[in-house]
Amino acid sequence: MSMVHEIAKEAGVSASTVSRVLRNETKGKRVDSVERSERIRKIAHRLGYTQCWRATSFANGKTCGIGLVSEHSEWLFYGMMGQLAGELSRALNQLGYHLVVIPVEETGNWKQLVSGGRVDGVVVLHHYSDSIRKNLEPLNLPLIVVGDSHGVHTHGVVYADEDGAYAATRHLIELGHQRISMYARDVVRPHCSVDERRRGFEGAMREAGLDDGAFWCVPEEELFHRIVRTPSPPTAILCYCHVEAELLYQLAWRYGLSVPRDLSVIAFNDLPSTARMSPPLSTVGFDVARVGAMTAKLIVEAVEGRHGETNELIVHPSLNLRASTSPPGAKST
Amino acid sequence: MSMVHEIAKEAGVSASTVSRVLRNETKGKRVDSVERSERIRKIAHRLGYTQCWRATSFANGKTCGIGLVSEHSEWLFYGMMGQLAGELSRALNQLGYHLVVIPVEETGNWKQLVSGGRVDGVVVLHHYSDSIRKNLEPLNLPLIVVGDSHGVHTHGVVYADEDGAYAATRHLIELGHQRISMYARDVVRPHCSVDERRRGFEGAMREAGLDDGAFWCVPEEELFHRIVRTPSPPTAILCYCHVEAELLYQLAWRYGLSVPRDLSVIAFNDLPSTARMSPPLSTVGFDVARVGAMTAKLIVEAVEGRHGETNELIVHPSLNLRASTSPPGAKST
DNA sequence: ATGAAAGCGCTAACAG
DNA sequence: CTGTTAGCGCTTTCAT
Fold this sequence. Notes:
homodimer; alpha/beta; 434 Repressor (Amino-terminal Domain); 2 domains; 41% helix; 17% strand; elongated; DNA-binding
């Protein structure tokens, strides 16, 4: 006999009542039923009742699981993605849900995870590729895409990358820089964030009447030539993310350049480690805790059919100015 | 009518047979049944069958979910933990399981996740606290603890931290350093890794007849005094983890010290970013991909009742010598 | 190797 | 608000 029935017998009520009470599905208007609820809860506690989620999920068709779907799973928990995954999982827990990690691999196991009703909804982080879309769309699962607006209309959270790049570039221009480049490693995959950051950069450059053709998407070796082995190298660089900044710091260290005196550096992604760089890195950052919380809210609303007032959220960047940017030739800010 | 029954009717067999075939529970000895299996699979495919995991889990009592339980969830996916979580989730997928993230919070929601049969087993990362143990033990869930051997006898994966610290210290001694300290920030919680790394450090120091009392667990401000404002500061430092190294680099940068000429630095944790530091950081690292794979194997064996030949694994460190360590006073290696 | 029947433990629809 | 009555879809005995 199932636990719920035992409690029911003990309390002299029906299993449905027990079930309802234990899920707080009683309005608590009539006094007698409130008392009875109390009694039921006590008995449940005395008998050491714990809900069997397998049975509940089966009966009501809800798992309370949210899938975190991501390609290139070797980076799944790296840098900002890691922060975000952590925040998301915590926020979901607060809402009574939990995160199921679904790394997208060639093998295709992930499709079963996502299609077998193991999760109520899905969050795709930063790269909603064609392959993922193709598999996800027919399932018609509640879906929130974070940080990929690649031409597709889906609900989700998007970063105001263009604004961020614009603001960072303005900052460099206002410091007096004239020769400014934007740098992304050549291994960075095509992605809307690249396009938008580039657009923000070029917009600010053009507006200031500066050369807006200085977007570099090159291998590391090439950097050496463009910064060290060139007559008039840029005096400031906007980096696609913190990794580019680390590479620039290394280049500077190796060839005796000083950041920021010889080269100002500013980068996307504000991580705990960026503030510990030498010099501390100026960054364009997003409030990851907020993104996590909003994403959780959006996906849960979608799952529960309560389409909240907002189902698309734009996250605005903040400019964190530290010691890696200064007027050209100056020691530091 | 359930999917399985539809297929059964279509194929003219019973639901049991369909169920067995679809799970490859046929030995395939008799020719006729092999043919029938083929036919069943074809029909299932044609009808677009996808297994309903909620029903399967309910029926056979297995979720194929493994819980990743961790306190201080804000660090859940930071640094090495993040790498490990990623590797673990990928390895589990290969074995037909998936990772469920269970951040331990004050609120206590996590207990329901872990006790309601939502996961078949649990992996605890790096800190098997009393609070976690107290809640987990009575459940009698298969459990693997990674990186915490704190006096408790459990199956799991442990790091050979003492060996790592010993090897790193030997390296510094062999370079000719005499004044060597080990540094851990004061915010590092008490943990077996601190004790063991310290033991390895002090062992090597004592063995070489050097001062083995130079273990520093101090706030950042104090570092300044012990390195900059002291007559004969250490010439080399072993760091508890990469964060301490970043702080030392910053201190050196701020006060005009050179790494490694004035101060050699070596640290635990080999991460993608450590190789990009300036100078590239010498580290003591563990093969995180292997740890992830082994952990997955151990927990799955425990869940499936196949107690493999090994249920405790010791992971040995590797010394990654880069440019942050050199003989005292020398430019670089 | 297969089929029939009996659950797995809880929830939902409906009538009272 | 409560009790009755059916399931949720798949797996697993246990005969055959």
